[in-house]
Amino acid sequence: MKILRGLRGFGREANKDPMELASVYQIVDQCLEIQQSRLERHGVEFRLHLEPDIPAIECRETQIGQILTNLLNNAFDAVMAGGGEKHWIEMAACLADGCLRLEVTDSGPGIAENIKAHLMEPFFTTKEIGLGMGVGLSLSRAIAQEHGGTLALYDDSQYTRFRLVLPLRQNSGV
Fold this sequence. Notes:
There is one protein chain. By secondary structure, the chain is α+β, with helices and mostly antiparallel strands. The protein has one domain: 2-Layer Sandwich (Heat Shock Protein 90), CATH 3.30.565.10. The chain has a 5-stranded mixed beta sheet. It has a two-stranded antiparallel ribbon with strand order 1-3. The radius of gyration is 16 Å and the shape is globular. The relative contact order is 0.17.
């Protein structure tokens, strides 16, 4: 039942929801609950590194869950397409410069240089017809920006890593 509630929440439009304080631990837990059986079924190791004592963030919880779910889905697709021996996805969260920093890294084959510049464009996809509409990353980036944050691909390792950075509080001052 909890999984169904989570799916209903992530599947709806939430841009009119009020900004409220939310636990990053709870958001991550809900995202993982939806993904867990698929990861296990396909033998994908999931590594979770959440810094302790991250304070609640002011956000639209459903929208932040949508970003993380999209990043996890993309990571899963990349890992499965990679064909290598090691299939893993890692999610990490910490405080950095007074902001929440969430990273999703995967062991997939990486992203070709000629594609990197287009990843966040609406309707750009590397997936086969019918497997993706090319709106997930552009929508996720727009949500991050609406929250005063950023979503970007980082080339700081041999693996594909997306970093979501969000302020702990919005300018409205909850």
